[in-house]
Each structure stands twice: as structure tokens, then as C-alpha cells.
Amino acid sequence: MRLKNKTAIITGAGNGIGKETALLFAKEGANVVVTDINEEAVNQTSEEIKKSGGKAISISHNISCENDWEKVVLKTLDNYAEINILFNNAGTFLIKPLIETTLEEWQNLMNINVAGTFLGLKHVIPVMMKQNGGSIINNSSTAGLAGSVGVSLYGASKGAIRSLTKHVAMEYGSYHIRANSIYPGFIDTDMMKYRGEIDQSNEQQQSKGVPLGRIGYPQEVARTVLFLASEDSSYTTGAEFVIDGGRSAGRSPSKGEMYE
Ligand SMILES: NC(=O)c1ccc[n+]([C@@H]2O[C@H](COP(=O)([O-])OP(=O)(O)OC[C@H]3O[C@@H](n4cnc5c(N)ncnc54)[C@H](O)[C@@H]3O)[C@@H](O)[C@H]2O)c1
């Protein structure tokens, strides 16, 4: 077991990547604190964990609300006394051309994706400092690494998460706190289905330009998060992990086009 007796907070654990990570962490022996704004979904995650013999508590949590973060930290310490791992995973998405995006939409998305991640760091790092160690994993996106069309606001929020992670790695490394970020590509979750509805694309279209020829699955992201949470990555901090089937590695030449 790679996380035996470790305590992990996972946000957005009611669905998708967060849920699969919670299930995997529990199998690896962690005490899992699963949180989500969707209370019913996150209760379901903790029930599934407990039914299969794992340890979990669920908390209703809006990541952009500072009082909610205080409650999450207190409840975690009351139950398990430590916080060893934080997976800042919850986030939201918007497809819209930049010039049609309203200031309200900008503020709302930044408040969830960026302020939500910042608040998690702000409230969990002091606990990890007292313990003299911990592992933080922030969920960015390949949209935070390179430009795309229609996702400028989302991409900017994920770029901010990339930068925050590196600053945290520098600022708190002396306390043996590691901070790394992950960059999923097209992963089969409800978030991708929403994206599919908007541009009428389907799984086949999403797989175009992916060297491995398919979309990814949340379980595949969860395994990278497990590596970063565990001692297997003990000398890794401030690093970036792309999980996109190779899509961002380069550009496939179209038919008849010369290789450059
Ligand atoms: N699916 C993809 O293709 C993909 C690609 C790159 C990055 N990501 C990132 O992965 C993370 C997880 O997304 P997913 O694909 O599993 O989607 P998902 O929709 O399955 O899960 C997202 C979860 O976050 C929760 N959530 C949303 N706003 C919240 C808030 N304010 N407070 C607390 N919880 C909130 C939702 O209720 C949901 O359970 C997100 O940060 C997303 O940006 C996803």
C-alpha cells in the first residue's frame, strides 16, 4: 500500500478525476477526505469507499468559499489529526470566444478555479508546515500550457494554477512540502461531455491529433496523482505532468504535408 495511514483531501471528488483518485487512494490505504459542492455525489463517493473497506469522510464544500475551507481543515484534523496530501482538483469550464465573455463570467470562473486553488493552499500549507512535510497536487490542464480556440478564460485560469504551483514549490520546499501540477488532455468525464455538446464533437473527433489515438480516462489521471502523492516521487517538486496521450508533444502533419 503506497499511502498507508496518510490523510488526503481531494476536492471535486463527487465525479470524474477526483472521484477516481479518491477510490484509488483509499485502495492504497489512505484516509480520504472527499469534498465537493455536489453533496449527494460526494456522499456517494465516500459510501463506495467505505463499502469496499476503505476509510473516508465526505464534506459539502464550495472551494471558492474561505469559511468552507476552514471547516474542511478542522474536520480533517478532528478525524485524522494530520493532512499529508492535498489534491486541488475541483474546477469549472467555459467555452466562449474572448470578446463575448462577460466580466461576470471571468470573475466567476477565476473565483472557482484560481481563488479555489489559492484558498486550499492557504489553509492547508500551515498544517503541512507544522508537520514538516506534505504533497500537493494541483489540477491544471493542457489549456494552461498552450493556446487554443474558445477557451481563453479557462486557459488563463489553468495557467495561473501552473504558476501558483511553482511558487509554492519554491516558497515551502524547505518545509519538505512538495507541489506539482498535472495537465490532463481530453479525459472522459462530465466536463468533457459538456465540451462535446457545445462543439457537436464526439469521441472520435476528440481523439484527432492524439498520438495514442484515443481520449483518456479518469483512472489514468488518478494513477499519476497517486505517484505524485506518494513517496515514489519524493525528489519531485515544482514539476509538470502532462497526461494527454501525447497531444501536446507536437503537431501531426496533415495528409500530403511535408514533415518539418
Ligand atoms: N475532463 C477533462 O478533459 C479535463 C482536462 C483537463 C483538466 N481537467 C480538470 O480536471 C478537474 C476535474 O474535472 P473533471 O474532468 O473530473 O470534471 P467533472 O465535472 O467530472 O468533476 C468536477 C467536479 O468539481 C465539482 N465542482 C465544480 N465547482 C466546484 C466548486 N466551486 N467547489 C467544489 N466543487 C466544485 C463538481 O461538482 C464536480 O464533481 C477540473 O479542474 C478540470 O478543469 C479536466
Automatic annotation (TrEMBL):
Single Gene Ontology MF annotation: oxidoreductase activity
CDD domains documented for this protein: SDR_c
Gene3D superfamilies with a match to the protein in the record: NAD(P)-binding Rossmann-like Domain (3.40.50.720)
This protein's record includes keyword Transmembrane: no
Extent of the signal sequence: none
InterPro entries reported for this sequence: NAD(P)-bd_dom_sf (IPR036291), Sc_DH/Rdtase_CS (IPR020904), SDR_fam (IPR002347)
A biological process from GO: bile acid metabolic process
Keyword entries, A-Z: Oxidoreductase
Pfam family, one: adh_short_C2
Family: Belongs to the short-chain dehydrogenases/reductases (SDR) family.
Record-linked NCBIfam families: PRK07231.1
Protein name per Swiss-Prot or TrEMBL: Dehydrogenase
Organism this protein belongs to: Robertmurraya siralis
